[in-house]
Specification:
Helix content is about 80%, strand content about 0%. It is mainly α and about 270 residues long. It is globular. The protein starts with a helix and ends with a helix. It is a multi-pass membrane protein. InterPro entries: Sugar_P_trans_dom (IPR004853), TPT_transporter (IPR050186).
Length: about 270
């Protein structure tokens, strides 16, 4: 984001104390969501983590309902195949363990609370576009995470670094390969979020949600191919049902959003 702002590829947002205070909550939940997702990735197959993360709409509906939002019956029905599909995938997952499942579920809670908190806290900062908002949430998240990372595992950094270098060399690579993959991972992750926010400005929420569902399918299939994770027929069926439920949820919530928009205009 600093590069984008410095080169004037992205307009700099006007920063104020109320704006930064409003971001403290969303940034905290953003941090929790990412840490728990990384924990899940480290313990189970990447495809399984993404299947469980496809249940995020379930948490979204439940938390939003507690806060007073009302959803039509179609939305509630759409979460049933998500729950059933995720449950079936979990039961038949070869790499299943409780830590991986818990990490993915906590990640869902973190991101849902981030989204709800952002919407409720930042209504008065509509002049800030999505990319700048995401950029500042990430910057504050880094400020949260850095001291916590030093406290929790700072003593393990040197040893972990040497083990990572040794593992890279054992596979025929060099220390530069480690730096390359870590950097590439960070760049691609930022570009993914940047393109998502930019796409949302140009297309309808329904089109975006359909694309987001297809992204989940591509990620799951790609990780199975790349990492050659064993997938049983019931596991594949559960994953497909969960993703299909996510698609139904996207359509149902999009219709609700259009209805609310129409009521506001009238």
């Amino acid at each position: 984001m600093v590069v984008l702002w410095s080169l004037k590829l992205q307009p700099k947002p006007k920063i104020s104390k109320p704006f930064l205070i409003a971001l403290l909550g969303p940034a905290l939940f953003h941090t929790i969501g990412h840490i728990s997702a990384c924990v899940s990735f480290s313990k189970v197959a990447v495809s399984f983590t993404h299947v469980i993360k496809s249940s995020e709409p379930v948490f979204s509906v439940i938390f939003a309902s507690f806060l007073g939002d009302k959803y039509p019956l179609a939305v509630w029905l759409s979460i049933l195949p998500i729950v059933f599909g995720c449950s079936l995938a979990a039961v038949t997952e070869v790499s299943f363990n409780l830590g991986g499942l818990s990490g993915a579920l906590i990640s869902n809670v973190g991101f849902v609370l981030r989204n709800i908190y952002s919407k409720r806290s930042l209504d008065s900062f509509k002049e800030v576009n999505g990319l700048n908002l995401y950029g500042w949430i990430t910057i504050i998240s880094f400020i949260y995470l850095f001291p916590a990372a030093i406290f929790v595992e700072g003593s393990q950094w040197v040893g972990g670094y040497h083990r990572a270098i040794a593992a890279m060399q054992a596979s025929g690579g060099s220390p530069l390969n480690l730096y390359f993959w870590v950097t590439l991972s960070g760049v691609f992750y930022h570009l993914y979020n940047q393109s998502s926010y930019q796409a949302l400005d140009e297309i309808s929420p329904l089109t975006f949600s359909v694309g987001n569902t297809m992204k989940r399918v591509v990620v799951i299939v790609s990780t199975v191919i790349v990492f050659r994770n064993p997938v049983q027929p019931l596991n594949a069926l559960g994953s497909a049902i969960a993703v299909f439920g996510t698609f139904l949820y996207s359509q149902a919530t999009s219709k609700k959003a259009k209805k609310i928009e129409g009521e506001k205009k009238n």
